[in-house]
Amino acid sequence: MKSRETTIYDIAKRLNIAPSTVSRGLKGHRTVSLETQKKIAKTASEMGYQMNAFAVGLRTRRTNTIGVIIPRLNSNFVSNVLAGIEKVTNHHGFNLIITQSLESREKEIRNVATMFANRVDGLLMSLSGDTKDINHIEPFFKKHIPVLFFDRVPTSSTSSVCIDNENAAYTITRHLISNGAKRIVHIGGSHDINVYSDRFRGFLRAITESGHSINDNLLILSDLDENTGEKHADNIMNLKADAIFAANDIAAVSCMNALKKRNMKVPGDMLIAGFNNDIISRNVTPQLSTIHYPGLEMGELVAQKMIDHLLNDIAIEANTTTILESKLIVRESSGG
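Structure (tokenized):
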């Protein structure tokens, strides 16, 4: 004979607490202490309790699912962000639907439609390289479904979490200049993407303040991938450049390896700096100077903001940008 399923009332009886406390504790509600939440979770596990997500959804009109749309999965930074999001959402009993736009606005539009059709409780989003507006998010806004942007954020008034890319790029460019660089090549991504346009502005501000002239030949737009170095190394050498600031670490390391193959010494002949503090920056010789971009912390923060809104009615303030702190990491590639 099939045994009866364990209910919150059984857990409450075992712990001698109210069923409502068990219910809130299983959802990670802030009115229940962490110690009590742990006791409830441990007892629920021991008793084989399974939450009926369908029944909960009918009562709360929630699916306990959060959608995440990112440009690409094959990125160390994105992996760190997703790890932070998953850590927080899993703790509070939420599931994730994760999709990638592959830098295509059309695919992003389809992803948004999929999230809407699956009735996600909220949407966390980093924009594709092709996205110029966010009109396709209107169904979420009209239904008052919370949307929080991170990293690549729209220029329109929205709620978002990012770092100050311009000041970070300014800081690392000033570092190269202070170490003697006079002709710095900037290898950046599309200026349609806010993070790359902001990093370009920071680079430009540092060059201008230093009194060095701006030479368009020293500005290179690239895909910022592992082929960047071979594509541009000969050109960089012909430009008589003495430093490179690349808008991500993969491009910076690619340039370093390509120039070393051409018998250039780093940092002796060329100072090089990147951006993101990816694992690759620490696993190359010489190690790469870079900007630490706190991906894990960003993921945790955007997830916690969404959870606080869904479970605790804490508003996600409109037209508000939360700036996370980044920092310069000085290593051998820029002369120390």
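The mean pLDDT is 91. Residues 75 and 278 are 9 Å apart (CA to CA).
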